[in-house]
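Input.
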Amino acid sequence: MIDLEGPDPLYLQLAAVLRERIASGAYQPNRPIASVAELQEEFGLARGTILKSIDVLKSEKLVRAVPGRGTFVTPSA
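Output.
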């Protein structure tokens, strides 16, 4: 999953994992992805790294943030 010793930045590796979860249907449209805290626990990455990964997915229009509710998979993803 995440290669801590590899050449690719950790945030891009995590973005790839989350992108695959969206593509495979593990994260359904209009449903939230795992919270930042849950992703920190699962992957052992810093909060900033997690947020940067989510920003990548936002820029790709795969997810959107809903204040006070979480980050949701967009219907078109």
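The longest helix spans residues 10-24.
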